[in-house]
Amino acid sequence: MVSPRLRRAAVAWAQTAYRVSQRRACRALDVERTAVRYQPRRDPATALRRRLHELAVTRLTFGSRRLHTPLHRDGIVINYKRVHRLYVEEDVQLKPRHRRRRKPATLRAPRTMPTQPNERWAMDFMHDVLQNGRAIRVFAPVDECTRECVALRAAVGFKVSDVAAFLFTAGAPRGGLPAVVQCDNGTEFTSTAPDHWAYWNQVGLDFSRLGQPFENCACKAFNGSPDESVSR
C-alpha cells in the first residue's frame, strides 16, 4: 500500500471485516489516522470540466495537450498537467481505434451557401507529374460563390506552415480573408498550424465528412480538369 487511497480502502475493509474501530484498524495496519480522516479541499473545477467536455465534443481528434491551447485562448490560466489529469478523470480521452476510418477533425455544423464573393473558400491539392517524372502538388483555393480560383501555388511538397502562410497572402489582394474555409481532413489542414492561423485571423475551418468528397465539390470540380484549371 503506497497511495493514500489504497490505505484508506484497507482500513475501511479491516473495520468491516473484523468489526473494530478506526483507531485499532490503523494501529494494526500501521497507517496514520490523519491519512484516513483527511478530506481533500481541492477545487472541483466544475466550469473547467464542463468546458473540457464541450471542447472534446467539437474537437474530436484533440488530445489533452492540444485541448490545452483553446482553454488558454478562453483566458483560463492552467497548467497542462492539470488539464491532463481532468482529461483522464472525465474520461474524454481518445478511444483506441478499431476501424481504419478516421474521425473527422471537428463536429460538422450545418453548411450555409455563400451569397457574396469572398464569403466562403474551399481548398484542396491537385497532383501532377512533370515531364521528368517528378511528382508535384498544386495548392488551389477556390471561392465557392464565384467559382474563381483565388491563387495557385505549385511545389514538390508543402509544409503545414506553408498552407497558413499562403492563405494569408492570397487574401491580401481581395480585401481580406473569408469567414469560412472548406477543406478535407488531410494533415495539412487538421494540424496545429492551420488551427492557430484560423483562430488569430477569425476564420472558421469547415471539415468535410469522411467518405463524402462531394461536400468539397467546388475544389473537386475545379481540380477535375487540370488543363482548364490552369487556363482559368
| CATH homology superfamily of the largest domain | Ribonuclease H-like superfamily/Ribonuclease H
CATH architecture of the largest domain: 2-Layer Sandwich
Elements, N to C (H/E): HHHHHHEEEEEEHEHHEHH
Helix content: 40-55%
Largest sheet: 5 strands, mixed
Beta percentage is 5-15%
Unreliable stretches (pLDDT < 50, length at least 5) are: 228-232
How are the strands of the largest sheet arranged?
Answer: 5-4-1-7-8
The level 1 CATH classification of the largest domain is Alpha Beta
- Number of domains as seen in the coordinates: 3
- Give the class from helix and strand content and strand pairing: alpha/beta
Coarse shape: elongated
Mean pLDDT over the residues: 79
Per the CATH scheme, the topology name of the largest domain is: Nucleotidyltransferase, domain 5
Span between termini:
73 Å
Number of strands: 8
How many helices in DSSP terms?
11
Any overview of this molecule?
The structure is a single chain. This protein is α/β, with parallel strands linked by helices. It has 3 domains: 4-37, no CATH class; 46-89; 120-231, Ribonuclease H-like superfamily/Ribonuclease H (Nucleotidyltransferase, domain 5). Helices cover 43% and strands 12% of the residues. The chain contains 11 helices and 8 strands. It has helices at residues 4-18, 22-29, 33-37, 46-58, 64-73, 80-89, 160-171, 187-190, 192-200, 217-223, 226-231; strands spanning 120-122, 125-129, 135-139, 142-143, 148-149, 153-155, 180-183, 204-207. The strands form 2 sheets. The chain has a 5-stranded mixed beta sheet, with helices on both faces. Helix 1 (4-18) packs across helix 2 (22-29), helix 5 crosses helix 6 (80-89) and helix 7 (160-171) runs parallel beside helix 9 (192-200). The radius of gyration is 27 Å and the shape is elongated. The chain starts with a helix and ends with a helix. Residues 228-232 have low confidence and may be disordered.
